[in-house]
Automatic annotation (TrEMBL):
Binding locations of Mg(2+): 37, 225
InterPro entries with a match to the protein in the record: UPP_synth-like, UPP_synth-like_CS, UPP_synth-like_sf
Residues of the active site: 37, 85
Stored HAMAP family: ISPT (MF_01139)
Protein name, per record: Isoprenyl transferase
Highest taxon listed in the record's lineage: Bacteria
Stored SUPFAM superfamilies: Undecaprenyl diphosphate synthase (SSF64005)
Alphabetized PROSITE patterns for the sequence: UPP_SYNTHASE (PS01066)
GO BP terms: polyprenol biosynthetic process
UniProt key word Magnesium: yes
Length: 257
């Protein structure tokens, strides 16, 4: 049994090396969004606690970012906590928030990533808000991958926040509603999104076999490619990542054309 597992692991590594060797870095997506799904189901299948599943998922993040760095990805958006997740039972939510806060602090301490929060900070606990602010400040000058941590994030909420920000900005500039109605366009709304001044995601990866976006970056993913992987997030391997890149490179992006 042990020998068979070792042999399987060796074959997977050799296959991953082969896929990576044929990968054209010029065709690698510059911005990857990740819906990291399946922590709880992974834990259940492993006979572990839900908290253990979330910890295993958190441990996968640094490894995943390392793969992104190796393949010249420039921006990664990680959906760590949705607005809907905040309604989970406190016995699950409390440990989950602690784990996510640890992730934020670990990313900042690593020194390789520039951390940026996307989401509504006001709905998060004070400790989480403080961790996010400190992480952004500590990594502001880092030249590595820009890592958007989507915490307390919902796609529809982001659009609502963008419209609210646009209206407040117009009010502060003394612009009337009639004038704003004449000025507003897609670019103006985009300048008020959480990810303003960033490229939109080229590729969105969702693990666990679920084939829906669940409100992830609704505005920014209008022309994104999607890759749905059957593997639960804690079990996501480098070969799964490389397959996603290979699949993306084989597609012809039409941008609505």
């Amino acid at each position: 049994m042990i020998l068979r597992d070792k042999l399987r692991s060796l074959l997977v590594r050799l296959y991953a090396r082969r896929v990576e060797g044929h990968l054209d870095h010029a065709q690698v997506p510059k911005h990857i969004g990740v819906i990291m799904d399946g922590n709880r189901r992974w834990a259940k299948a492993a006979g572990s606690s839900t908290a253990d599943g979330h910890r295993a998922g958190a441990d996968k993040i640094e490894e995943f970012l390392g793969w992104c760095a190796e393949t010249d990805v420039e921006v990664v958006t990680l959906w760590l906590l949705s607005t809907d997740n905040l309604s989970r039972p406190q016995e699950e939510l409390g440990p989950l928030l602690d784990i996510i806060e640890d992730v934020v602090r670990s990313l900042a301490a690593d020194g390789r990533w520039r951390v940026h929060h996307v989401g509504t900070p006001d709905i998060l606990p004070a400790g989480m808000q403080r961790a996010l602010k400190e992480a952004e400040e500590a990594t502001a000058g880092v030249q590595g991958i820009l890592v958007n941590v989507a915490i307390g994030y919902g796609g529809r909420q982001e659009i609502a926040d963008a419209v609210r920000s646009m209206l407040l900005d117009a009010h502060e500039r003394g612009v009337s509603l009639e004038e704003l109605a004449e000025q507003v366009d897609i670019d103006m709304i985009g300048r008020h999104m959480y990810t303003r001044d960033q490229p939109d995601p080229d590729l969105v990866i969702r693990t666990s076999g679920e084939q829906r976006l669940s409100g992830f970056m609704l505005w920014q993913t209008a022309h994104s490619e999607y890759y749905f992987c059957e593997v639960f997030w804690p079990a996501f391997r480098k070969v799964d990542f490389l397959r996603a890149l290979r699949d993306y490179a084989a597609r012809h992006r039409r941008y609505g054309g």
